[in-house]
Design a protein that fits this description.
It is built from 15 helices and 6 strands. It has 475 residues and is mainly α. A hairpin with a 4-residue loop joins strand 5 and strand 6.
């Protein structure tokens, strides 16, 4: 029977079998890509910063699926995922991470819960849009309006009830926008479940679970890094650890739940070629350029770079800072070069080039981030675990996978039959168990070291305010 699981752990789909090991291997590639993207996102933040990992999620999934259909869908789903996940960048979440670093149960449990909910709201909309594009029965205009209306109403109603009626502030004194996102995420899941959209619901739930657990577990790993560096005398950026781990976990979970299905090809009508052109230009060309225009003010940035380069001992720091800006502009040009190559492969129907977009975007953004951080110019520091080196390792593993792997489709869409049922009960129970484990482990990890950068909700306190109320500082 279709959708059943073989005794050896292989998944049967349309007469084809994907072994558990193969499924894990494909999911690890997506995990590497999204982990790299989310790690780099931390350097830029906000809406534009999250567009890159959002696009990479769809690009990497389409590549490892091995399906011609997803190769053809790739520009559209990547653009939609980039926009949807990028929108989550408007949420305030820094203080929530501070709560999760506290050493009192009520504060760190609250911190991890809100991080799970916010991560879920960050990932579910992009995950749902990917799934909705791949539905076997395409969405009609009225359905799109119904979905959008449900999402907007649920977000508004949740914010009104929680913030305006109950007067609850999620992370004072920051904004409460994430409460609206959390409500909108639930509204989306309810609409998809009530309107028979199995692939959209699958994508939405996997995005919800993947990014929710990714944000919570990533913060726990960041806390552990914070503790270990104090104990073993090395230095590491615990925020980079958290961000990279968040993307890695989210990418793995999303791909693992989506990759073993066969998906239909996009319709050639309804301006799909034009939509693909827009998607290709936006994903490979405009995302790097948008980072350049939105996040770099040339005069201020070159002065900042020059000051840093001078402290590194360079003889002509102002000229070198100007060269760095020129190189970043060159990287943006490379983005449009990649878009042209992708367009040629896409319109000539060359699925063997499926790895190109995700590798090109990842390489482009990695170069951009390295130049912006002066990675190629600052001196080495003893006992520093440089996360920029880790980023290059992630990219190298991606390239190695693309060189040696030849992902084959689990099945042809024509053989796929009806959409197999999604074991949502197991996913929900597994997610609850995994989240509970995160909170339990936080009780062992959090302590004096994590409190150095912690915040608390009860009472409202920040590490910059001095010793935690009721405690005396150590002499």
């Amino acid at each position: 029977m279709r959708g059943m699981h073989a005794a050896d752990g292989r998944t049967e789909q349309g007469g084809a079998l994907m072994s558990l090991g193969d499924r894990i291997g494909r999911s690890l590639f997506v995990a590497l890509a999204v982990g790299l993207g989310w790690g780099i996102r931390g350097d830029f933040g906000h809406l534009v910063g999250a567009m890159y990992p959002g696009a990479v999620l769809a690009l990497a999934l389409a590549y490892v699926s091995g399906q011609r259909s997803l190769f053809l869908w790739m520009p559209v789903i990547a653009a939609l995922s980039a926009a949807a996940i990028g929108a989550g960048g408007s949420m305030s979440y820094g203080i929530l991470h501070g709560y999760a670093q506290a050493d009192t149960f009520v504060n760190y449990a609250y911190g991890f819960l809100t991080l799970f909910l916010q991560g879920s709201a960050w990932g579910t909309f992009g995950g749902a849009l990917i799934g909705l594009m791949l539905e076997r029965r395409p969405m009609r205009n009225g359905e799109w309006l119904g979905l959008i209306g449900s999402v907007l109403f649920a977000g508004w109603a949740t914010s009104f009830l929680v913030v305006d009626v109950l007067g609850f502030q999620i992370n004072p004194p920051r904004n409460n926008g994430s409460i609206a996102y959390m409500g909108a995420a639930i509204g989306q899941l309810v609409w998809l479940a009530c309107n028979d959209k199995p692939t959209g619901l699958r994508g939405a739930l996997l995005g919800y679970v993947g990014f929710g657990l990714g944000m919570a577990a990533g913060r726990l790993l960041g806390n552990a890094a914070n503790v270990l560096q104090g104990e073993y005398g090395f230095t590491i950026n615990h925020w980079n650890v958290m961000e990279t781990s968040c993307g890695f976990i989210a990418g793995f979970i999303y791909c693992f739940g989506m990759v073993d299905r066969a998906y239909p090809e996009p319709p050639e009508r309804e301006n799909m070629p034009l939509a693909s052109a827009y998607g290709i230009t936006y994903v490979l060309g405009l995302i790097p350029l948008w980072h350049r225009l939105n996040r770099i003010r040339p005069a201020a940035k070159t002065a900042e770079w020059a000051a840093a380069l001078k402290s590194y001992g360079y003889a002509d720091p102002e000229r070198l800072a100007g060269t760095v800006l020129w190189l970043i502009d060159g990287v943006c040009v490379l983005g449009f070069v990649g878009a042209a190559v992708w367009a040629a492969a896409h319109y000539r129907r060359r699925p063997r080039w499926a790895a190109f977009p995700v590798l090109w975007l990842s390489g482009t953004m990695l170069l951009y981030q390295n130049l912006n951080a002066l990675y190629f110019f600052y001196p080495s520091r003893p006992k520093l675990v440089n996360m920029h080196n880790v980023f290059w390792v992630l990219f190298g593993l991606m390239a190695l996978y693309a060189l040696i792997a030849r992902p084959r489709p689990a099945a042809e869409p024509s053989d796929a039959g009806p959409e197999p049922p999604f074991p949502w009960g197991r996913w929900v129970l597994g997610s609850v168990a995994a989240f509970a484990l995160v909170v339990v482990l936080a009780g062992r990890v959090n302590g004096e070291k994590t409190m150095v950068t912690a915040n608390t909700r009860w009472p409202v306190w920040s590490w910059s305010d001095g010793p935690f109320p009721g405690r005396t500082p150590r002499p």
